[in-house]
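dude i think i finally got it to work??
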Amino acid sequence: MAEVSVTVLDVEEENALNVFYNIETAKIDYFHIDVIDGEFAENENVLKMRDYTLKIHSISMTPIEVHLMVKRPMEHIDDFIDLGADRIMFHIETCKDNNEALDIIKYIISNGIKAGITINPDTEVEKIYELLPFVHMVLVMSVIPGKGGQKFIESTLSKISKLKQYCYENDLDIDIEVDGGINDITGKEAVDSGANILVSGSYILNAIDYKEAINKLKEI
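look at this
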C-alpha cells in the first residue's frame, strides 16, 4: 500500500481551514507544503505557505513535509522548522555541487528534521546517488515545478525504477515520493515502478469525496 501526501498548493485562502480539517479527517499520511520563491519556479507563495504551515500545525497531528522550490534553500529552512515541519526537501538543481547539498542535508537533520532531495523531470537520477545514504527520502518530480494540475510525465517512471533498483542493490532504506499529475492510474504506475509515497493535489481536492479518492491511492 502507498502512503498519500496531499499538496495544499492550490487551496484557496478563504476556505483553507475547512479544507485542512476535511483532509485531516480523511486520513492522509502527510500534508505537503510547496514553497515557491518566484525565482526557481513561477508563482511566488512563500508567505502563504508559511501561513498554511502554521495553521496546519495548530490543528493537526499529521506530519508536515515541506518541499522547497526555491533558489536558496538555506534562507527558508529555519522558518519552516520553527513552524512545525517534520520533513524538509530541497532541489538538487539549486546546489552548485553535492558538497553544498550535503551541508544542507546535515543542517536539516541537526535540527531533528528528516531531510530529502528533490529532482526535476530532466535531472538524471545518478546525480544524487552519493547523497542517498544521508537522506530519508527522494522526491521525484513528474511535472515541471511550480503549478498544480499538470499532466504526469511518463518518462519519470524509468527514473523511479532506476532509483529503486539502486537503493535495493546498496541496502538503502529511503522513501521514494512522486509529485505531479498523480491520480489512481498514474499513481499505480509510480508505485509499480518503486514509489511508496504519492503526492497528490487536484485528484483529491477536486473529488466529491476526499476519503474515497485518498483510499483509492492508498490501496494501490
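Residues 129 and 166 are 8 Å apart (CA to CA).
im so relieved honestly
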